[in-house]
Design brief:
about 0% strand, globular, mainly alpha
C-alpha cells in the first residue's frame, strides 16, 4: 500500500496506459516471435480465412522482407482486408518489424 501513497486511481490508470502505449510501439525483431497465441488465433480467424498454414507462410515471408515497402506490397498483392481493429493491429506490428531506430 505504501507504494501507492500520493497516487490516485486515475494516476495509476494513466501510468498503465502510458506504459502500454510505449510497449505497443516498440520495434520487434520478428513477427513470429512477437505474435502471442491469442493474437495468432485472432489473425488466423479474421485475416487468414481460418488457414493456419497460410498465416505461417505469410509470417515467414514477411519476416524475410528487407523493408516495410516490400512487406506492404506483399500484403496489398495477397490480401484484401477491410479496415478493422484486427487488420490495423497486424499492419502496425508489421511496421514495428521494420522500425529499428
Amino acid at each position: 500500500e505504501s507504494f501507492l501513497k500520493g497516487k490516485s486511481i486515475y494516476d495509476l490508470i494513466t501510468d498503465q496506459s502510458k506504459l502500454e502505449l510505449k510497449l505497443s510501439n516498440l520495434p520487434v525483431s520478428t513477427l513470429k516471435s512477437a505474435i502471442g497465441i491469442n493474437d495468432r488465433f485472432q489473425y488466423i480467424r479474421e485475416l487468414f480465412e481460418n488457414d493456419a498454414d497460410k498465416f505461417s507462410k505469410s509470417i515467414n515471408i514477411l519476416d524475410s522482407m528487407k523493408n516495410e515497402k516490400e512487406a506492404a506490397d506483399y500484403i496489398r498483392a495477397n490480401f484484401k482486408w477491410k479496415k478493422s481493429e484486427t487488420s490495423l493491429k497486424f499492419i502496425n506490428l508489421v511496421k514495428r518489424r521494420f522500425h529499428h531506430e
